[in-house]
Specification:
The chain is built from nine helices and 17 strands. With 360 residues, the chain is an alpha/beta fold. Helix 1 runs parallel beside helix 2 and helix 1 packs parallel to helix 7.
Length: 360
């Protein structure tokens, strides 16, 4: 007999526990929505040895520490954090629930039937929500070994890590247009750049080949035979199959991204050709009440940008869901707002908010 999942309902469910998901969940919770964060663990941010480019966060902080602190903050404010994997999702058949929430244009609550709720199926629990925020990111395509250690000589984000390699010997690994241009961009930081094709035919264009031939970039075609690391685990050099040993402080692998867009596609969200989810300026997808933020969407893959996108989605959801001010058309139907109707925040979140008051 198949065991049925238990079901739990929230105003908002955020899928993904990286910076974008944490930020969206934080804003949704603090703006008065019962919110769940579902995190399967891992992800790009969790692998960061040091956090870069985040004002107020020192570089002694690892990605895992940043994410752990974020979850603690969420739980303190009343967000429910689950360690789970969402395997599928669906939208219920349109129901007849009439919305009394704020309209999407800010003019007042919608009077038409609200969109049906979304069910997200976890391992043992089904999560039901009015709004869903997808922050499932992407997975970097890794080249075949032998490789330096991730974060100790093998890196994926130029804008995060180029600063680490100023005036140091650097490699860029790959055969694509992106690999060629990242190699050229690295000349802004160091004069010693090699482009490693690893015995694979390049796919860049003739124009890109002309660009490369007119910049001081050495293209190394031999395959890597072995990796030499220092006592601290950092890369020191690579040995190639022709016996050549080349010293590097670090470098970048440019093999593309595998976007974790399965849930978005299952809900019917429109996708770009590269697999990213199409969103508006607030993170709203083509499907009503479904948002996408962070690395799952087009743009720069940066922690501060992800944090901002999560915040923007949380504010947009609050704008759509807030009870007050009550629209004049609903005042005629429901009457004026009375003292017992406010504040418009669930009791459990109200209690948490009072606990957080710092001016007593």
């Amino acid at each position: 007999m198949t065991k049925e999942n238990t079901s739990t309902t929230f105003d908002v469910v955020v899928v993904g526990g990286g910076p974008a998901g944490l930020s969206a969940a934080l804003y949704c919770t603090r703006l008065g929505n019962t919110t769940a964060l579902i995190d399967r663990g891992g992800g790009r941010a969790a692998m960061m040895q040091d956090v870069h480019n985040v004002v107020g966060i020192s570089e002694e902080t690892s990605g895992a520490e940043l994410l752990s602190t974020g979850k603690e903050q969420l739980e303190a404010y009343g967000c429910t954090v689950f360690r789970d994997t969402i395997s599928s999702c669906s939208r219920r058949e349109q129901d007849t629930r009439e919305s009394t929430k704020q309209g999407s244009d800010g003019s007042g609550p919608d009077t038409e039937d609200s969109p049906s709720q979304i069910t997200l199926c976890g391992t043992d629990t089904d999560y039901v929500a009015d709004y869903v925020v997808l922050a499932t990111g992407f997975t970097d395509e890794r080249p075949d070994p032998p490789l330096p250690r991730t974060g100790r000589g093998l890196h994926y984000c130029l804008h995060c890590d180029a600063y680490m390699f100023i005036d140091e010997p650097v490699y860029v690994m790959g055969t694509s247009e992106s690999a060629a241009y990242v190699a050229a961009i690295m000349l802004n930081f160091t004069s010693d750049v090699d482009l490693l094709t690893r015995n694979t035919e390049p796919t860049w264009s003739d124009d890109t080949e002309t660009m490369l031939s007119n910049h001081p970039i050495e293209i190394v075609h031999e395959e890597i035979a072995s990796v030499q690391n220092g006592d601290d685990g950092w890369l020191e050099s690579l040995t190639f199959e022709d016996g050549t040993v080349r010293e590097y402080t670090g470098g970048f692998a440019m093999y593309g991204s595998d976007y974790n867009n399965g849930l978005a596609a299952e809900l019917g969200c429109a996708l770009n050709d590269d697999g990213t989810v199409i969103v508006d300026d607030h993170g709203q997808t083509s499907v009503e009440n479904v948002y996408a933020v962070g690395d799952l969407t087009p743009g720069h893959n940066q922690v501060p940008i992800a944090l901002g996108e999560g915040a923007r989605a949380g504010i947009s959801i609050h704008w759509n869901r807030r009870e007050f001010p009550r629209d004049p058309t609903l005042i005629d139907e429901l009457g004026p707002v009375r003292n017992q109707d406010v504040p418009g925040i669930p009791d459990e979140l109200l209690e948490r908010a009072v606990e957080h008051h710092t001016y007593n």
